[in-house]
Amino acid sequence: MRLDVVTIFPEYLEPLNVSLVGKARAAGTLDVHVHDLRAWAHDRHSTVDDTPYGGGPGMVMKTGPWGEALDQVLADGYEAGAGRPALVVPTPSGRPFTQALAVDLSRAPWLIFTPARYEGIDSRVTAEYATRLPVHEVSIGDYVLAGGEAAVLVVTEAVARLLPGVLGNAQSHADDSFAPGPMADLLEGPVYTKPPRWRGHGVPEVLLSGHHGKVARWRRDEALRRTAALRPDLIARADPAAFDRRDREMLSILGWQPGPDGRFGPSPDAVEE
Ligand code: ADE
What we know:
Blueprint: E1 2-7, H1 19-26, E2 31-36, E3 49-50, E4 60-61, H2 63-79, E5 85-96, H3 99-106, E6 110-113, H4 123-130, E7 135-139, H5 149-160, H6 212-230, H7 232-237, H8 245-253, E8 256-258, E9 264-266
Parallel strand pairs: 1-2, 1-6, 5-6, 5-7
Antiparallel strand pairs: 3-4, 8-9
Helix pairs in contact: 3-5, 6-8
Residues 90-92, 139-141, 143-145, 148, 151 line the site of adenine.
C-alpha cells in the first residue's frame, strides 16, 4: 500500500517510522511519502492560509497550495503505478472513523492524507478531488485537535495492522473489539498473563483450566459485562440475532431485556450500578 501525507508539519509524522507501521515500511508492505505543503506555497512567507470569507475567527487553508500539492502527489503516484487512490481528509466534522472504515481503507492500494491546521481547508479542494477520487472525510472522535496529523497517525495504525503479513498472528484481529465476527460490537474483556499471582491479585480460575469451551464462554460473558457497563449504546443497537441463549441469560443478569423489536434495552427495574 502506498501512503502520501501532505502537511505543514512533516516532523509530526515521524512516528510512522516506529513500531508496527515502521516495520511494515521496512518490510515494503507500506510505501510512505510525507510532503511539506509549504513546498507548494510560492510567496516570501510560504503562506498556506488566509482569513475566512464571511468573517469569523481563525484562518482557512488556501486552495492554491493544496491543489498544486495534490496534483503533484497524484501525478507521482500514478507514474509509480500506485493504483487507484483514495483521499482521506481528517476533520472533526467528518464521518466517525470506525473499524469498518479501517477494513475498507486497508483494501485500497493507495491513500492520500490531507491533515489540516487552522479552521480547515477551503471546501473547494475536497469538492474538486471528489469529482475524480473517493474522498473520506473522517473524524477520530468528538473533540477538536489542533490539527489532523494525530488523526493520520491513528488511521494509519488502524489500517496498517490489517494489511496482510503485518501482524504476526492473523487471528489477532479476529477477536478485536469492533472486528466483524462473533465479538462484533462488543468490547474485549480483561486479559492476563504470568505470573498467576501479583500483589495479591489472582487470575480467574477458568483461564487456567485449559477448557477451551469454558474459556470462550467466560470471555464472552466478560465482553458483555464490560460493554453493558461502558458502551451500553453498542448493546442497544446490536442485532439481537448476534446473542445466543447464554448471552441472553448474561444480559438479563446485567439488567437488560429484549424490547418489542427484539433489540435489548435496560430492564425498567434494573438498578443503576
Ligand atoms: N482535526 C481536528 N480534530 C479532529 C478530529 N477529531 N478528527 C480528525 N481530524 C481532526
